[in-house]
Structures are given as C-alpha cells and as structure tokens.
C-alpha cells in the first residue's frame, strides 16, 4: 500500500491545486501518538469525557425517537433556524449583540466555515495575511485555494498592529491582492497568546483605514482561565469582520458543528457554496447542539471544562519552569489549549522528533504552523487532553530529550549531527539560524 | 433583508468562481413546497419515518452514553475504519467484491464526495461529460469548480455509448481537457432511467479505449423494484471508475454519510482534500451508521423502503396514464425516486410554474438539470415523499394546469402569452422549439 505511489496512472490529470497538497505535521504524527506508551502533547483533542454522557446520550436518543422525521431528514443548507438563534445567544457572551440568525450559516465544524469563506473570496495567487505562527488547518485551506500566505508577527499581546500595517503597505507596493486577514485573537493556536484590548481596537481601525476584510476565528474564546470573555472584533465592526465559531471546544468536536457570521451579501454566497459542497449540514448533530443549549447547563459545563484545562495548563507551566534547560522559552496562556515553546541554541524541533518519539513523548514541530518553512526552533505543546500527571511525565521526558540534544551539541560542537541546521558544518557557509519573523518576539 | 443586495461593498473582491454561483431550481422552490396546501412533487426527500425510530433512537443514545469518548471526539479524516469495512459489504451487493476499506473515504454525504473528486481533478475550463439531463447538485459542484459541462444524450436504456464516443471525439478535436464522465447509472436523477447491462460494458470499454475516468454516482442502486441490483461500473473496472455511495436513501439523509471508493493514489489526494475542508466527518453519525449496519435488519429495511416507493411509483404512473393530456410523455422508472416528464406542444415548465403554484402543486422545472439552459419543456416529478393519495391529487392538479395552458395556447394562438417560447409571436422570427439533445430520445 504505497503512501506516495510512484506509478499513479492519473498523475498527469490532477488539478493544479492538488499538487500542492501535503500531509500536515499533525496527521504525520498520528501513528505515533496513538501508541499507549507515548505521552502526547501533540493533539488538540478536547476532554469530552468530562461531559455528562448519560444525559447527552438520552437527549440525543430522544431526538431520534421523537423527532426522527426532522433529525434524520435533509435540512436547510444554511442550517436549522432554532440552532442559529441559539448561536446568536452564544455570541452575545463575547459582546456580539447585533447578530441576526439570518446572518449565520451553520457549517461542518468551523473548518468548513473557513474553507467556504476562502472559496468565496480567493482566486489562485491572492494574498492572505495570517499570524506567524498560524493555525495549521487554516494553512491547509489556503494552500488548497492556491492563495499565498504572508505571516504577520505576534508578541505576548497577540498580532502586532504596526506589523500588520507594514505588511499592508508592502503588499500594496507589490500590487498584491490582499483578500483578508485571518486571525485567532483568543488563546491562539498554536501560540497561546491573546490579542490585548487596545490592540483589538487598533486592528479594527487599520481594517477600516485599509479597507481590509478580517476573518476572526474564535474556537477558544469562552475558555479563558482568568477573566470574562473579551469583546470580539466582530462586536466592534459588523461589516468588515466575518466571524467563525465552533462547538468543538465548548461541547463536542465529534458532532462537527461550527458556524460563520457574515454580512447578508456574503452569507448568501456562503450558503450557495455550502450547498454545492455538502447540500446541508447533518440534521441530527444540529438538533443535538440546539437541544443541548436548550436543556443542559452548558454555561456550567464550560466552567467545568475551563477548570480542568486550567489545572492542566498549571501542570504544564510548573513542569516547564522546573525542568526545562536554560535558554528554552515558552508562552504562558491564560486560556485555551496550547503552549508555544522555543528551543535553546538553535535546536531544530523537526530533526529532534525521532529522539522524542524514542523517549515516548510527542509534540508538533513548529514548521507545521508556517507557510514559509520557518519555525524550526519552535514546537506546540497541547495540555488539553492528557491528565496532569501525564503532562508532568511528558514534560520530564521532553526536558531530557532537549538536554540530550544540547549535550550532543556541546560534545560534537564542530560535527554536523544532523540535528542542527548549518551549525559549524566544516566547509559549509556559516548560515545564520534564521527563525520566523516572530522569533524574538513571541517569547515569554 | 435584500436577497440580491445591490450595494454589496465586497462585490469587487469575490473569487471568480463566486460570480457564477446561483440558487438552484430546487432551493428556489423551498418557500412554496413547505406550504401545507401544496402537493410537492418537487423534493427528493426519502421516507425516513418508515424507519424503526425507537430502535434507532435507543441505538444512537447508547452510542453516546457508552462510547462518548469516541463518538463525541474528533476522528480520522478518512473516516471510521469499522464503517469503511461495512461499506465494502454494502458495495458487494452490487458486485464490487475487490474493494478494500483502505480505498474508501467517508464523506459528508456523497455530495461532498463529488465535490472532493472535482476539486482534486478539475481546473477552471476543464470539461466534464455528464448525462443530459444531469443531477442538479452535481451541476452546482461543477459550476463552483468553473468546469465546463458537456451533456451526453440518454434514452430509456440510459447514457448512449455512441453519443459518448462522439462527444469524446469532438472534445479531442477541440483540444478540450476532458477530466471525467459523471454518470448516475441506476434510476437516474432526474431522468428515472437505468443504464442497461450491455451498455455498462460498452461504457467501460469506451473508458478504456479513450483513457477516460468515470465517476459513478450511485445513491439509488439498491432501490430497484423489479430485479436484483445491477453490477456496478466499478465492478468491471477498478482503476478507471471512481464510485460514490450514500446512506441517504437506504438509511437517513440527515446523518449525511456518504463515501468515495477510489484507487489508492486518488484516495490519498481525497483524504488531504477532505482534511482541508472539514478536518474529519462527524464521528457520531459514522458510528450510528456502522452500528445500524451491525445490529439492525438493514436489508429488510431497504426492502420495506422499496415496497413503499414502488407503491408511490405505481400511483404516479397510473395517474399520469389516466389524466395527462395527449402529447405529454414520461419515463417509467423501475426503481429510485423520479419520473421525467415532457410537456406537449412546446409548453415551458418554468413559465408554467406560477400557474402550478396557484393550483397548489410543485415540480422542478427541467432547466435546472442542464448546464446549457435547455430542458424547458421537461419537468422532474418525485414520488418518494408524498403518500399515494397525495400523489394522485398532485398529478390531477398538474394535469389541469397543463390543460389550462394548452387551452390558452389554442385560444390565443397568435398572441404571446408568455408561456410559450417564440410560438407564433407576430413579427418574431419563427424560431423552432429546440429541446435538449435528448428531446426526442428520453420519452416513454
């Protein structure tokens, strides 16, 4: 069963977009992280077993027994009207109080929402601005659309407005067609940082000044540890901001229910696009979410999730503080699922991966989160799924792996061990270790 | 709430593909067919209430209560392995005995399967061959991909092999890149006809001779009234035929579970494309289908569905035979959901629609099933959803509508009533009433 068949008789008839598709760094890890002896800090799986499974099971069973004529039947392409109403209630928690159910399109996870928005707006060669690093699943969508991604740096307060403005000016000078800014303002995946309050207004002001469309992707907004949800970008601008939401982190990812909130003219295009893609989202899963919001204590459940993730975040940060060798740095998330870690001495997280797998710990190498091949000295650590004790053990193993790499580095200083990029390789040009544009900014 | 906002501030920044998107003839009818006084022969909704809803409800409830850690969690992009095994069992009923679960990709309905195949193969301007008429949802996918559709005529035995060969020769002469043939061999939507046994072999031979890829879309194959399922095209050629399947008509469309069976090299591309589009299909709905196939009498249920649809088909054909004015012709399906009807005297089904709505009967105008604007004298009648008595009443109303149009035609023979195209309009060039390429072939 060849993974990359050499003799594909159809090789010459694929579409142009197909040639650029490649396996993500996360999927490439799948066979590793599913081994029971491996502590996985790689995946972003929510802790769904913290849900009241019996209650949710009865609820969904009754939806089929009692309302099978609706829940097992085709529905509207735009999504169930009752669910769209409840989605507006959810968004109100982040200050979006003017949204109408008619502006909401229900999608198969917010991934489909992003794909639809990208298909509706982007021709091949168009430019999308995105944080560096950015969500790996978004980069997959943009690549499939043959769009070009230009990364904009972040720091601990999220996307840097001045850098956004500079990127816009440069694109304008280049004659690039910038279709939108894609941003994850809360508890960023993978960076773990949150866009500060003053910067939110600054970004919206820039969008207004440069006539820039903003795609606000917000799966984690309600999962903050320390304060109330921040006001969404969409709450500040209802014409230039298209908002993507999801129930994957607040309820269940296995139902694949997300949504897009967009101005009516755009919403109309999105509905046509989703009808061509899936006809309509699954009815059963939509009814399940609407009924869950109607009958279950969903706000309390989010609080419970948040407490659980906070404990895991704490275990992660405490272990990192105690165990990581000097020179290693990382972000300190106050919500969401992720820590973004920078290796010391130019270590390369991708090249280090075999040693980590051998030590039974998994992470996602940083290069997966850049469209331009940078990010090699970074990695993403997810604390959402493993128990605190597993997290501590995982960080312990990771610390030993990094120390072993550093030892190797200092012992064979002038030898190319394969783990370092162009570090003292005899005869090679002394190439500086160049990180992503954010390399000196996204540290703790 | 403008449906077609004139002042869309983003109008100048949509992708090229977006400008071609338009509401389908079926969705345009939505507000009409949902009115209780209207007999709808328009929609293609399966009779899901014939399912054992209590048993299915308990089954799905238990899946969540007992297996929430799997059914509510993210799954594999390719789809649940157990479900893919059971899908191979289902396909064996149509003679596909060499399929491996590794060649199957689970999709959000077979609509997503067709979208993925089209995205993987088609660049803008590529040519797709498709029956005339063809499935309206497929035409939406091809339009979104900016592909050009060339229709190939059918008759009562389905796609005409000689016409396919002629189309291929003409495309070759034109320098067109033909990416594939899209065909619905069983109980065609909307034509209601089935590809005969000798023609199946002829189509596969042509595909081999012309190096043509074939997309076999087969949602209705198990819903035959008179004989065992026919052998699929894919059973005759496992390299040139990509097969699309669906549980929407044999179980439930509201779960949105379909699949693609493709050679491994193509399957790999399809998985990358679906990961970029939806990450993974919903877990709960996949587990529900797999459990249904494992524990419920699904073959007996299909038999029950078939008996029910046969009764409705009979009610349709008997009423048409008894009531339709002379000159009206229609196909006689021996399975599936649809009758394809041709109006007499060049009546235009789209222009006749307001009168039909006034008479409280709905159908889908034939132009929705052609990419080239032809099909005006045709309509699709669906008998899958209404009860036999409703069907008889609907056909009665439709017959009266057609008779009234014919009366109008004969009374105001020389006047342009708006219902006829270029029929005796004074001063206009006597333009012949040109039907689709199949106009003289697809009749009963």
From TrEMBL, chains A, B:
Chain ranges of the Aminotransferase class I/classII large domain: 66-398
Q: Does the keyword DNA-binding apply?
A: yes
Instruction: Please name the SUPFAM superfamilies in this protein's record.
Output: PLP-dependent transferases
Tree of life domain: Bacteria
GO molecular function: any one?
transaminase activity
Q: GO terms for biological process?
A: alpha-amino acid metabolic process
Q: Which CDD domains match?
A: AAT_like
User: What Pfam families does this protein's entry cite?
Assistant: Aminotran_1_2
Q: Which cofactor does it need?
A: pyridoxal 5'-phosphate
Keywords (A to Z) from UniProt? Aminotransferase, DNA-binding, Pyridoxal phosphate, Transferase
Looking up PANTHER family in the UniProt record yields: AMINOTRANSFERASE, KYNURENINE_ALPHA-AMINOADIPATE AMINOTRANSFERASE, MITOCHONDRIAL
What family, per the record?
A: Belongs to the class-I pyridoxal-phosphate-dependent aminotransferase family.
Quaternary structure annotation from Swiss-Prot or TrEMBL:
Homodimer.
Record protein name field: DNA-binding transcriptional regulator, MocR family, contains an aminotransferase domain
Organism, as annotated = Geodermatophilus aquaeductus
